[in-house]
Amino acid sequence: MRKIGYLGPAGTFSEQAALLYVQKCPGELIPYSDVPELIMAVQNGALHGAVVPIENVLEGTVNITIDTLAHEADLKITAEQVLAVHQCLIAQDGVDKSEVKEIVSHPQALAQCRHFLHAHFPGVPVRAVNSTAAGAMEVKNSSLPIAAIANRRAAEIFGLNILMENIEDISNNCTRFVVLSHEDVPPTGRDKTSIVFSVSDKPGSLLKALSIFADLGINLTKIESRPMRTQLGEYLFFVDFEGHARDETAARALDALKAMSTYFKHLGSYPRSE
User: Fold this and answer.
1) CATH class given for the domain over 191-271
2) Which of 171, 176, 33 lies closest to 113, judged by CA?
3) Catalytic site residue from 13, 121, 158, 177
């Protein structure tokens, strides 16, 4: 059976997304403790695929994911899943919210609840851990009155009490997850393509690159820059657009972009999430 990795332990939002994925594409789910290790397990053949977070409505891009894809791995995005994210504050039975001495969670979850924490727990220390479920596990094993920010499933798995629900700062909070593997997937007619590229440091270079898509009537759904890790002022540009790399129009755009890029990588063409 195919082995599919996710950011664990059980009870993370990544596990939720992975469970939805294996309903459609069966596989054995394997937890990993951090995103780079997870991605490189696919790269090295220990896993057939991995489900990783790539973008959140509140906090934007998950930088560790796209940086690893750009600089360290040679993998393809083969699917995406958008998951509604509702955070809970959880603690051991008998712990009241007025007694909480520290709050732990994944950095993204803490950021998604920043205003909540400021309003309800001013002065209470917060601490980042590798995942929301890792925070829940720490709360379960602690002798101190600490709390975690995690989902309802994590509370159920670790036998914790939900002190407050839906504590995310924006009600339509959601995270986009992608599936990574060595495989390409064929066009479906409702596809998205992800690429990363860089252009020469000359006036108008980026404008010319993006004009390729505008001139061909291709809709960009995302564009973001990240440091190229070479020197200050040099950037990689991550772009998502509607269409599949095998579509005639998209293929023309990619050929033109590759010809003028100083760096180019096709990160995958895959069905858009419903």
Assistant:
1) alpha beta
2) 171
3) 177
